[in-house]
From TrEMBL, chains A, B:
Signal peptide residues on this chain, from the entry's feature table: 1-23
Pfam families with a match to the protein in the record: MmgE_PrpD_C, MmgE_PrpD_N
Protein name as catalogued: 2-methylcitrate dehydratase
PANTHER family referenced in this protein's UniProt entry, alphabetically: 2-METHYLCITRATE DEHYDRATASE, 2-METHYLCITRATE DEHYDRATASE-RELATED
Family per similarity comment: Belongs to the PrpD family.
PROSITE patterns xref list: TAT
Species for this entry: Methylobacterium platani JCM 14648
Taxonomic lineage of the native organism: Bacteria, Pseudomonadati, Pseudomonadota, Alphaproteobacteria, Hyphomicrobiales
Domain spans labelled MmgE/PrpD N-terminal: 42-281
């Protein structure tokens, strides 16, 4: 067997060699740019120092909406088979009953609770979205710190600050490597999310700057999730595991478990290893003045955003005209080509397939006035009234219609013609869901899982998160009795 | 904000689109080879079906040696600061005391125990090496299954079979992506190791073929470790976390937590995401006839392999001639250029720096007749007898000397000249450590941590692993009272 450089010195040796402890490996090619400096440390310093008082009001507000939306989707997913399986698998290994699960009676140690709430909140793919990176920010971050908060009480203001800083961390790191990192196959919510969880948990633990550097380094060592897993339970696994892994990183760093100082930006660090693009300015520039957390969005409809303009238009015309299915003779849609490319299924057989059928989405929106998880259930796609109407929906690819637009025309049996143009669907950055919309979504998700009075109480506490004396109150209020 | 394909459909949508549930994304370029089929499933089927009875005797023997060496290094690292920190950090979150730690009194749930034993076994970088990939195979695999075995007793034969299959799994997957995967920055022991842990744990759990496919898929979702972490505690973190993550994957899969069916080979699966090279034949060809596990090697000396030929020669001449330091006038070494490039430090100040000093390594070997962890301690590099002799060691780069060779010449005060040529150092595939060598290494590592009688007992049980009625006996015998 011929020995090569790697086997000869051993991994530790190559590392020390690269660090200059001994004669180094041949240096990088001459055309390579100078390595970026102190990216991890700059981010760590910001997270450690940032105060709730410094957060602009708009960022606090969006952080609160992010939190409320996450609580709703976590309750909504809590009795899905995915969570039943995970709970039963992990029960025998859990530590002390430190933290609860939304919508369920079981208690787990905080790392398992972070995992399970993180899984639950992503099951319907109905959580928040940072559209620039398609990161779902709340799952990894909120799941980690709410569990932690149950064990080590903190004020709601500190909690909200940590939530925003965690979202900031993951979305900025995501920006630095998107789209190459996502295109090659990573589920960016899990890979960037673990940094967000570590940063937010480390913030609440009061880590020093050096400890935060190590926490981010241990987070970098645990990227979670591949896109190939989409369509299986493994997809929801990813934000949950990112939450638990980030928490694990912070817990070790708090006791001075060391990592390297430049794990994000070093030559053989995270960004170079997981992406062909690295724009470190996205991480270090404008910290404390520009907030990615302010760009978070929430889905009004439980399906891909490509169908949202059409559903929005359908619901508007239905409600304004009090339409009933029997009144409708035909529905014409002018759409961008992507709509048919991605959601062109005409005969969906399951709720999940319904999420990829623009004709189903419009039909069920006209019948039920909504596009929630219930409208993408097996029940809904088999409803004879819906399937009948589905056959009357005719989407037509039309030049000049942008992806975020739609033109919807309904011809009624009495000859009237109703039209609606959508420029930006509800839920976009330009046309965000109102607080009342978020409440309706929350209630819709929680109904049938928690009693109505409890739903109202959890929602009120979530809205009030920034003012609570003890943030853990939300967790305790959201469990099943 | 302009929407793009990703934000429009949402991640789940793109996945289903890619799976053909709806009109697919633009297909891969015409020059791309046809995607490999059933790699994950072929491997899963093999692991599920393989029996201890089918293992060649040589493979059983190497598996036993792998296990014994791992127990020794895990005991050896058990009181290092790295482990003290990790134990104190994780204690508050541990589940029931299901499994012990080598060399320590604490008990943890099996996932935390797997992590901690995995960390411990890598601290000195003195564990086993699969030279083709520089994977350290035992850490992730043995740590996972020995913990599991304490909770769910299995025979030693089943244990040894699972250990071999886990090593086979990680080394074959490593072969498929090495060297590109390692060169870009991954710590391959952690990234491939998690598959080994999942496969071995899943084997002992009796997973079905489909469950094993899912376990491998959940493993693929959790690659652990970047080379930038080398030189910090984070390096030992990696095999430990790989052990725990693989166990976590198997535990979920056992309850039918699903993943995708082709997570290793799919277009956006593991191999394409983490490497520019994919040779799937390394995974699927010759299963059950060619064993990577038979190629495992063990380090006789606690440093990079580049120094091993010189240390080997020095110890041979010392012992054969009963040399004492005062007899030695000078030591000349003919070496390959890599030796000085990687281990050219002439005045090491710490034990760790001593691992990168060929002059120290030869001097201490001549004084103490060994190259163990004790010879690379702060004490050893500061020993005046050693430092004095160090100044008399003269390595010279010599054309024609290959990296695995050395020519060592000692000139004595009485005028005699002793020479030794090494073709393959002890510990190489061609010149493996004998069982007696492994025993001496084991004892050297365990001395001062466990009482002598206990060391002998643990070692005897480890040698006997394939015949034990209950494999967990080794774990129970190796803890500190």
């Amino acid at each position: 067997m011929t020995l090569d450089r790697r086997s000869l010195i051993g991994a530790a040796g190559l590392a020390l060699a690269a660090k200059g402890a001994v004669a180094a490996e041949p240096s990088a090619p001459a055309h390579a740019p100078a390595p970026p400096r102190d990216v991890t440390r700059t981010l760590a310093r910001y997270v450690v120092g940032a105060r709730f008082e410094d957060l602009p009001e708009a960022v606090r507000r969006e952080g609160t909406r992010t939190f409320l939306n996450w609580v709703g989707v976590a309750i909504g997913g809590s009795h899905h088979e995915t969570l039943d399986v995970a709970v039963s698998a992990l029960k025998p290994f859990s530590g002390p009953p430190q933290a609860g699960l939304f919508g369920r009676p079981e208690r787990f140690d905080i790392m398992n609770a972070a995992f399970l709430n993180g899984v639950s909140s992503h099951i319907f793919d109905y959580d928040d979205t940072h559209l620039k990176t398609v990161i779902h920010p709340a799952g990894p971050v909120a799941s980690a710190i709410l569990a932690l908060t149950e064990m080590r009480p903190v004020s709601g203001a500190d909690f909200l600050n940590a939530l925003v800083l965690g979202v900031e961390t993951e979305c900025r790191i995501g920006n630095a490597v998107y789209p190459d990192h996502y295109d090659v196959g990573w589920h960016i919510t899990g890979t960037a999310g673990v940094f967000g969880a570590a940063a937010a948990a480390g913030k609440l633990m009061g880590l020093s700057e050096q400890q935060m550097v190590w926490a981010l380094g241990l987070a970098a060592s645990q990227p979670v999730g591949l896109r190939e897993s989409f369509g299986s339970m493994n997809k929801s696994f990813n934000p949950g595991r990112a939450a638990a892994d980030g928490l694990f990183a912070a817990i070790l760093a708090e006791k001075n478990f060391t990592s390297s100082d430049g794990m994000i930006e070093a030559r053989r660090g995270w960004a170079n290893t997981v992406s062909t693009k690295q724009d470190y300015r996205e991480i270090t520039e404008g910290l404390g003045s520009r907030y990615e957390a302010a760009l978070n969005t929430y889905k009004p409809f439980a399906c891909g955003i490509v169908m949202h303009p059409a559903i929005d238009a359908a619901i508007q015309l239905r409600n304004e005209n009090r339409l009933t299915p029997d009144q409708i003779r035909g529905v014409a849609l002018k759409v961008h080509p992507l709509v048919l490319e991605l959601t062109g299924k005409t005969a969906p057989r399951t709720g999940l397939e319904g999420k990829f059928s623009i004709t189903h989405a419009v039909a069920v929106a006209l019948v039920e006035g909504a596009g929630g998880e219930k409208q993408f259930s097996d029940r809904a796609v088999r409803d004879p009234v819906v399937t009948d109407l589905r056959g009357k929906v005719a989407p037509v690819v039309t030049p000049g219609v942008r992806p975020e637009q739609v033109d919807l025309t309904i011809t009624l049996a009495d000859g009237r013609v109703l039209t609606r143009h959508i420029e930006h669907a509800i839920g976009s950055v330009e046309n965000p869901m109102s607080d009342a919309d978020l409440e309706r979504k929350f209630v819709d998700l929680a109904e049938g899982i928690l009693p109505e009075a409890q739903i109202r109480r959890v929602m009120a506490l979530a809205w009030d998160i920034g003012r609570l004396k003890d943030a853990g109150e939300v967790a305790r209020a959201g469990v099943q009795a």
